[in-house]
Design goal:
The chain is an all-alpha fold. It has twelve helices and no strands. It has a single domain, classed as Hypothetical protein af1432, CATH 1.10.3210. Homodimer.
Length: 190
Amino acid sequence: MADGTARGTAGFLLEMGMLKRARRSGWWIVGVKDPETIAEHSFRTGVIGAVLAMMEGADPAKVALLCLFHDTQETRVGDIPHIGRRYLDAASNEKVTADQVSAAHPAVRAGVQQVVEEYENGETLEVVVAHDADKLECLVQAVEYREQGYQNVQGWIDSSLANLRTASARELATAALDMSSVEWQQTYLR
């Protein structure tokens, strides 16, 4: 690997570290004082995506990859809440991604751009499942915030639930709405 592309690729990896510090800003609108980071959201979205893919007969690795890169552009444009998008004319995620990886190794550049392009424009089962994973993660996070006393999250729950396309995502959402965030451990405490 030529020194220039090694530096460009390393720069992209360092930029992705910003996602560990950047907060999901939409939660501030409903009063959450210390919301999750974009990286925290993306991690659980990837896990949810892989699980949903298994349930739906899609490729779990492909879905997890789509989920992992679905918000990487937010290092450059921030996490713009849906209400804010109404007033902004932001660059497409594909354009931002192209800039992010412009100095990276050619295989990395092509691979990352292809993943983002597919997530943004594809209609395969894997893309549908990845989008459901994003919505389901928001719903689960809203349930957790509601449990912590934030009462204004119902709109997030309703919106996320309404936008789920797969039967498995709707089934998991229904189950999550009826659980506490620590119910999973009750089986092991008996």
